[in-house]
Design brief:
The complex is a heterodimer.
Chain A: H1 2-15, H2 17-56, E1 61-67, H3 73-89, E2 98-107, E3 155-162, H4 166-170, E4 174-177, E5 190-195, H5 196-202, H6 210-214, H7 221-224, E6 228-234, H8 236-243, E7 249-252, E8 268-273, H9 279-296, E9 303-308, H10 312-351, H11 353-361, H12 366-402, H13 411-442, H14 446-451
Parallel strand pairs in A: 3-7, 5-6
Antiparallel strand pairs in A: 1-8, 1-9, 2-3, 2-8, 4-6, 5-7
Helix pairs in contact in A: 1-12, 2-8, 2-10, 2-12, 2-13, 3-9, 10-13, 12-13
Chain B: E1 9-19, E2 25-36, E3 41-46, H1 52-59, E4 67-72, E5 75-76, H2 82-92, E6 93-96, H3 108-113, H4 121-125, H5 127-137, H6 153-165, E7 171-175, H7 183-200, E8 203-207, H8 211-214, E9 219-224, E10 227-230
Parallel strand pairs in B: 3-8, 3-9, 6-7, 7-8
Antiparallel strand pairs in B: 1-2, 1-4, 4-5, 9-10
Helix pairs in contact in B: 5-6, 6-7
Classes of the chains: A alpha+beta, B alpha/beta.
């Protein structure tokens, strides 16, 4: 019956073209405005999300950490990493988790010292080992401005052996180049992704080697001279909060033994992005499972801890404000549109009382009339909504072509959410505006209507 | 389209009262006993305000009697829920009103097809052909795309007759179908109505002021002072206003 009534509504709208177009044009203006505002909101949402995820990892990032306290050796490390990743992998609906093997090696490059006001700002977390960085102090590093403390000791920077999925876990954009790929582990010259800070350090090195990255801690002469290829640069903030250290180098997990042949790789961390709801509980459960499994596998009192490491709270509150603003705009837009639709629909229903009486006489149920009136108002607003969304997209395209800041980042995918929201607002407007007239149509007395 | 169903209608001790805006109660019909057998033609005469239309509205399930029982093919009208009442109205009854009651923004063809919106899937799919056929039967095959305002009164009433018959109802209820027409046109309409009703085998309850036209019916009743009584052929009862 709905299909039949939709067809009836189409005929009714076509026969009242002027009324239909006038009503739809009001909705068009409202939906265009809403979609544009929603588009701007989407840009803001993307920016906030990018910033906060770049700092704290994606919402729902959990980590299992194993502090061995003693070298595990190559086999032991791989086994422990696999167990932890497998445990966490059981709870990973949103992204693959994988072991992240972290080592800390010392970079012994001589660099010009950088002034800093506060030792806590320093990248290594220790004021005694900071060697400072050249002119680029952006990205969470020292905020010095030419006065304050000076440090000239070498800085300890970590190198992480990671799975390629780590970038997805961190949710951090690449600053330049590309992230690691699975096939990188087999490359002769090992591809390395470095943080911005480390990139600055390596900038002047013509042919970087392992020594350039790790300094002289590795005694193996052949290994030290192993060529590196820096394939990408990642932002510092993501590294800082997700892995706990600012500035770092990343090498393929499968190629880890080529960097640290001693097998002493510090802490093993497995990370995954899971549903934020209950993330803490899942992290604790996975840690307990991993402890039990590692004990069964022969590890002596494995200290596995599980925790949630993202900053979804900050992300959530920031986005909640944005959503509330959007909701308010949507409600105002819908209200204005609905009043227009309500006005026209009420007038129309009043004019069509006799028709409704006739329809009842020939078999229409009261709810058929209600659905008919609702179909008409929703169709009008949907037409207005589609045109409105189209207009908003054209405006967005023009702004993009004009190179307005932020708009170019929105892209076609970015407009989908505002467009869908715009259409939903249009439909909701039709429903809201048509509801009262529909109820009026239901209450039409057949006899009174036919006597008119 | 031919209705092969015969539906018996029966009013038993039915009364109808209306509450006036000032709160007073107006009795229109009292203790009416009436049977309409399947396939018969019944003319109902009476003065204006005598309750003829109210009687027709009760028969067509547009209103209920205040007291008494109305049986539609053995089913008590009071016990029908709204959906069932609508279904019965659409399937079993066809209505013809004095002032046509056509949808102004719909063509003649669309007006005739309107009742089929609530018909079975097969009938709905075939609605245009059925409506076109009925329009042809009432002599308006060439006016199917005309809007009501483009038709004369007689033509509009023909459209209304086609609409009443398009679902093949068991009973056609015509409330002064010639009341807005001149004598000749009225006679033509009634002729069309009677012949098509006979062709489809449906009952016809015809409310009219015109005693001459009422004689075309199988049986005649007069409504007077809220009561309904039979009118024997050849008896000149003072029923006209």
């Amino acid at each position: 019956m709905i299909g039949r009534l939709l067809g009836e509504a189409v005929v009714e709208l076509r026969r009242n073209l002027a009324r239909t177009l006038l009503t739809a044009s009001g909705v068009t203006v409202a939906v265009t405005a809403f979609t544009l505002v929603a588009g701007v909101g989407e840009i803001a949402r993307n920016a906030i999300t990018e910033d906060l995820e770049g700092v704290g990892g994606r919402a729902g990032t959990v980590a299992l950490t194993l502090d061995t306290g003693a070298p595990l050796g190559e086999v032991g490390t791989a086994r422990a990493a696999d167990v932890m990743a497998e445990r966490l992998g059981r709870y990973e609906p949103r992204a693959r988790g994988r072991a992240v093997l972290a080592t800390s090696e010392t970079v012994r490059r001589d660099v010009a010292p950088l002034p800093s006001k506060d030792p806590d700002d320093l990248p290594c977390g220790s004021s005694t080992s900071f060697g400072g960085f050249p002119e680029d102090s952006s990205g969470g590093f020292s905020s010095g401005s030419g006065q304050g403390l000076f440090f000239s000791s070498p800085c300890t920077l970590p190198v992480y052996a990671v799975d390629p999925e780590l970038l997805g876990v961190m949710g951090a954009p690449m600053v330049a180049g590309r992230w690691l790929r699975p096939e990188d582990a087999k490359s002769l010259a090992v591809p390395v992704v470095v943080s911005k800070a480390l990139a600055t350090q390596l900038r002047d090195v013509e042919h970087p080697t392992l020594e350039s990255l790790l300094g002289s801690v590795i005694r193996d002469e052949e290994l030290v001279q192993q060529p590196l290829v820096v394939v990408g640069v990642v932002g510092d903030n993501a590294v800082t909060n997700v892995l706990g250290q600012p500035g770092a180098g990343f090498v393929p997990f499968e190629a880890r033994s080529r960097f640290t042949p001693t097998g002493d790789r510090g802490m093993i961390t497995a990370m995954a992005v899971i549903d934020p709801a209950g993330a803490e509980r899942i992290a604790n459960q996975a840690a307990a499972d991993a402890r039990a499994l590692l004990t069964q596998a022969g590890f002596s009192r494995p200290a596995v801890s599980g925790e949630r490491i993202d900053e979804a709270g900050a992300l959530g509150s920031a986005l909640r404000v944005l959503d509330l603003v959007l909701l308010a705009i949507a409600l105002v837009t819908m209200g204005l549109g609905a009043i227009g639709v309500l006005n026209v629909s009420l007038m129309t229903v009043r004019q069509r009382v006799r028709e409704f009486g006739l329809r009842r006489a020939v078999g229409a149920r009261p709810r058929d009339l209600a659905v008919l009136v609702l179909c008409e108002s929703v169709q009008v607003t949907l037409i207005g909504g589609i045109v409105g969304v189209g207009l908003a997209m054209v405006v967005g395209l023009v702004l993009t072509l004009l190179g307005v800041d932020g708009v170019r980042d929105l892209g076609l995918v970015g407009i989908v959410r505002p467009a869908v929201l715009g259409l939903l607002v249009a439909v909701a407007t039709g429903m809201a505006g048509g509801l009262v007239p529909a109820l009026r149509a239901v209450r039409v007395s057949v006899l009174d209507a036919l006597r008119r | 389209m031919t209705g092969d169903r015969c539906v018996d209608l029966q009013l038993v001790d039915c009364s109808k009262r209306f509450t006036q805006p000032d709160g007073s109660v107006l009795g229109v019909l009292s203790d009416v006993d009436l049977s309409v057998r399947g396939g018969e033609t019944l003319a109902v005469l009476g003065r204006s305000g005598s309750g003829k239309s109210t009687l027709l509205n009760i028969l067509g399930l547009l209103t209920d009697p205040s007291e008494g029982t109305y049986l539609v093919d053995g089913r008590v009208s009071h016990e029908l829920d709204e959906d069932e009442r609508c279904r019965l109205r659409g399937e079993q009854f066809g209505f013809v009103f004095q002032d046509y009651v056509l949808m102004e923004r719909r063509t003649a063809l669309e007006n005739v097809a309107a009742p089929l919106l609530h018909a079975s899937d097969a009938a709905y799919r075939n609605r245009t052909a059925a409506a076109r056929h009925m329009l042809g039967r009432v002599g308006l095959g060439d006016r199917e795309r005309s809007y009501p305002w483009q038709l004369s009164g007689g033509q509009q009433q023909r459209v209304a007759v086609a609409r009443a018959l398009v679902r093949g109802p068991a009973v056609v209820l015509a409330d002064e179908p010639t009341g807005s027409l001149d004598i000749d046109t009225g006679a033509e309409i009634l002729d069309v109505l009677l012949s098509l009703a006979a062709e489809q085998g449906c009952s016809l309850v015809l409310v009219t002021h015109d005693e001459r036209l009422s004689k075309l019916a199988d049986r005649r009743l007069v409504v007077e002072h809220g009561s309904v009584r039979p009118l024997a052929d050849g008896r000149a009862e003072p029923v006209l206003p």
